[in-house]
Write a structure and sequence with these properties.
Oligomer: single chain
Shape: elongated
InterPro entries: Anti_VapB2-like, SpoVT-AbrB_dom, SpoVT-AbrB_sf, VapB_TA_antitoxins
Organism: Glaciecola punicea ACAM 611
Family: Belongs to the VapB family.
Largest sheet: 2 strands, antiparallel
Strand content: 25-35%
Structural class: mainly beta
Protein name: Virulence-associated protein vagC
Order of helices and strands: EEEE
Number of helices: 0
Pfam family, one: MazE_antitoxin
Distance between the termini: 45 Å
Strand order of the largest sheet: 1-2
Length: 75
């Protein structure tokens, strides 16, 4: 089990996460308290930002072949 050191940064308490446990490609985390534990979870984009993505062109997937066959699939 890895341990981390706590320190004060201004008026806030901070934790130094050991390199072997660092979040890769994440620069923000959500923090929740669970009893006497504090849980850090990577903050990811929510679906609310989905509408900001550029819409696909009108001919998007025109050349895609139909991979679904009619009828039931037998397992």
């Amino acid at each position: 089990m890895a341990t981390a050191s706590l320190f004060t940064n201004g008026k806030s308490q901070a934790v130094r996460i050991p390199k072997e446990l660092e979040f890769e490609g994440i620069n923000e985390v959500e923090i929740t308290r669970n009893g006497d534990s504090i849980v850090l979870t990577p903050r990811r984009k929510s679906w609310s930002t989905f509408s900001l993505v550029d819409k696909a062109d009108d001919d998007f997937m025109d050349e895609r072949t139909d991979v679904v066959t009619d009828g039931r699939v037998s397992f």
